[in-house]
Amino acid sequence: YEMAYGKLGEALAQAKGEMNGAPMFIVHEYKEGSMDAEFAFPIADSIALDTSFHLGFIPGGIALSALHVGPYETTAITWEKLDDHVMKHGFQIRHSPYEAYINDPADVSGPEEYETLIVYPIE
Q1: Which pTM value belongs to this model?
Q2: In percent, how much of the chain has pLDDT > 70?
C-alpha cells in the first residue's frame, strides 16, 4: 500500500495535480486469496499522467456505506456486514465498492483510531 500510494503521489505531483478527497482502494473482485483492485486518489480535474497510470470515474449517486474504526486488518468484518446487507435487501451494485482512508496513520496515536469509509455504490 505504501509503495503504491507513494508512486501515485509522485505521479500526481509531477502532473501538478491535486487530491480532492481521501485516498481510495477500489475492489473490483475478491476471491479467497486473490483480489482485483486499484489504488486511487480522487482529483477534481483531468490531468496528464504517465501511461502506467490511468484516470477513472466513479459516477455519483446512491451508496451504502459504513465507517470502520480500527486496524486495517479488521476491515473484513465491516465488508462482510455490508455484503450481507446488500444481499438481504436485494440492492444492485452499480460500481465496484471501495475504501476511503479518512485519517492519516501518521496523525493518530495508533491503529485503533484508523477510520476507513467502506462504500458500495448501489441502485
Answers
A1: 0.85
A2: 100
